[in-house]
Structures are given as C-alpha cells and as structure tokens.
Amino acid sequence: MKNVWFPSLTLLCLELSMRVGTAPICAYGQTGCHVPTLADLFDRVIQQSSRMHGISSDLHSEFEQYFFPSKNLIGKRKCHTYGILTPDDKENAQRLGREQLTEVILRLLGAWGDPMSQLYQSMSRDQNQDFNHYSSNKALEISDMVHELRDGVAKMTEKMKQFGVLGNTVGNISPESLVPSSALSSYTQGEFNSLDHHDLLYCFRRDSNKVKNYLRILKCTTLPGLDC
C-alpha cells in the first residue's frame, strides 16, 4: 500500500504547488496559460454550485411570494430525485467516502438537466408574463448552470482519478439509472402548473444545497488543509 500511495501523494503535492497566479486557465496547456490544478477545479465547481443555489433560492422565493403569498405550502413534495440516496448531515457525508460522495453529486446533477430545461420552456410559455418574463431568464440560467456544473465535476473527477484518489469506475452513470422514468413523466410531457413549478423549484433548491455542501466536504476530504 505504501508503494501505491506514495507516488499518488507526491503527484498530489506537486499539483498543489504548481499554481499560477495570473496566467489564464486553459484545458490543454497552450502558450500563456496553465492546466488547472485539482484545487482550481474544486474552487470553480464550489463557486458555481454556491451561485446556482443562490439563484435557485431567489427564484423559489419570488415564485412563492407571487403565486402563493397567503398559503402555507407545508407538505410532502413530489421530488423526482427521491430515489437517489443522500447523506442527511455532514457527519454521514464524511463517512460516505470520496467515491460514493462523488457518485451522489454526479447523480443529483445528472437528474436535474432535463427537468430544469422543461421548467424554463414551461415558464417561458406561461401567460403570467409580468412574472415569467424575468423569472424564466433565471430558470434558463439555472438550466445552463446545471449542465456546466456537471461537466466541471466530471473534469474534476477525471483529475482525481489521475492521482489515484478515485477508482476508474466512478462517474460511469447511465441516464436511465438516475431516477425512475415514472417520476419524470409529467416533466417530459410538459404538463406543468403553478404548483408543479413550485414543487420543482423547492426540490431543486434542496438538491442544489446538497450538491454545494457535498462538494465542500469532498474537497476537504481530498485536499485537507485548504480552507477546511
């Protein structure tokens, strides 16, 4: 085990020491830029996830105030990601291990790509133009961010594999294994109403908060000592 881990840890230390302060980051190391380090990738996906969660929280609050200003909408939500098992607190997330936690993050992000695209299309067609002209732009931004963040986490996962931090099978997730097809039927058919919009935004705000927190925990368990 020592023989296996020593080269990996050495490479990881070199990775952290090769930061470039002002040069632009690029994927293939062209002249004038540098290949992003693992710490760089973690920082970027964490910042992106925090921004995505912030926008989703704002949109959920705006939607709730506009459509349900006097109703107390407490009850069970129809979250289509109910089948993805997620740790419910920091301690359980830390016990889950890097590979399992990475899989959970990728599954959550993969499960939200199509529903958020459908939400944007539904809101842009909605007759409540005084609200949806502005809010649908936010929904479109969130939809784009989900795809961008999943791509960023996938790149980060590949970098972690290079250092032997993750196994090579991590991230090999088939689309059909993400969520039950029945849970997505109303989304794929575009059968939305205001309560469906609210439930979707509520569930996405919850899941985006999980992704944000899991990424921070994953960074601290992979690169301890860096803002942890």
UniProtKB/TrEMBL annotation:
Residues 1-22 form the signal peptide. SUPFAM superfamilies: 4-helical cytokines. Transmembrane segments: none annotated. PROSITE patterns: SOMATOTROPIN_1, SOMATOTROPIN_2. InterPro entries: 4_helix_cytokine-like_core (IPR009079), Somatotropin/Prolactin (IPR001400), Somatotropin_CS (IPR018116). One of its GO terms (molecular function) is hormone activity. It is found in: Secreted. Pfam families: Hormone_1. Keywords: Disulfide bond, Hormone, Secreted, Signal. Gene3D superfamilies: 1.20.1250.10. GO terms for biological process: positive regulation of receptor signaling pathway via JAK-STAT; response to nutrient levels. The keyword Disulfide bond applies. It comes from the Eukaryota. GO terms for cellular component: extracellular space. Belongs to the somatotropin/prolactin family. This is Prolactin. The gene is LOC127353296.
